[in-house]
Amino acid sequence: MENHFNNQSRECSASSDKRVDQYGFERSEDFNFESNEELMSEYLAVATRRSKKWSKLLQGTVKVEKNLKVKRYVRKGVPCEHRTQIWMAASGAQDQLERNPGYYQSLLKAEHDPKIEEIIRADMHRTFPDNIQFRASSQPCLQKALFNVLLGYGHHNRDVGYCQGMNFIAGYLLLITKDEEKSFWLMDALLGKILPDYYTSTMLGLKMDHEVLGELVRMKVPAVWQAMNRHNVMWTLVVSRWFICLYVDILPVETVLRIWDCLFYEGSKILFRVALTLIAHHQNLISQAQSLPEICERFKQITHGDKSLWNQEVSPRQQSLNSGRCVDIALLLPKTPLHTKRRT
């Protein structure tokens, strides 16, 4: 199989081009470099300490135990250089890769459904147009790798095939792993085990989790629940994209990656915890809405800048360091029977 990644692209380090972040996303014209440098100077010291702790913990092993110490480490954020290994080990994707040598390549060589191919190709140009790694002029260009992963998965799981939202998930996986086959097996872990029935034609798992979230809001944030009922707003209308895209393009990239650290290690409960945190933090804004359209608009505002959760001096995509508070707060929420029973 053709390798679409060179050695340089495998490194998880900050880009030398200040116009883009370390993942290749373009910074906005009004990006505040001075503020970002201040944040980074503090954050890098913390990141370096955590990286050393992770290196000592792993000590060359590819296996990751599930215990309180590792759980604590994961919740604080997995260093970029260890992310692929932790995600692969914790989710079972590494075991699947080792048990099925050559399987991914065989999917790419097999005869393909032209309908699946057509749908995937139509989404290629919509996938992270603000990321230089997904442009045809980029070397390497991740579009081919993205197409392969989605095509392979669509033929691996015929019940799912392909639906919108999967391109963003596969894109993030490729940005982190720089490896098609590992991205494929991580997709399989997410869509087949951690989030079953999210992406099928009926989307039963997704609909069920919306109902679970609604019940959690009723218990934890009754003012919002009352407002939703008062204006007959279905949860699917306001949070569907949060769940189906796993917060990609909803929250800043570093925040999404910290959510995914927990998602691969602990399961889907982190999706509920983050949603509850966002809703609870903005309950006054939501509960004061006077109509269905206004509620929908206020849910959009939740993820597009709030001084207490995000740094408004930088673009939403770049609001990465301060927004880690969202995950920290979410992980402090006590367990509730509903979302622990739904899935582990």
Give the terminus-to-terminus CA distance.
35 Å
The total count of helices amounts to: 19
Q: β content, as a range?
A: under 5%
Q: Tell me about the biggest sheet?
A: none
Oligomer category: single chain
Task: Write down the Rg.
Answer: 20 Å
Sketch the topology as an H/E string, one letter per element. HHHHHHHHHHHHHHHHHHH
Overall form? globular
Counted beta strands = 0
Based on secondary structure, the structural category is mainly alpha
Q: Mind explaining what this structure looks like?
A:
This protein has helices spanning 7-10, 33-58, 68-76, 80-91, 93-99, 103-109, 114-124, 142-156, 166-177, 180-194, 204-220, 222-230, 235-244, 253-266, 269-281, 283-287, 292-302, 324-331, 337-342. The longest helix has 26 residues, at 33-58. It has 344 residues and is an all-alpha fold.
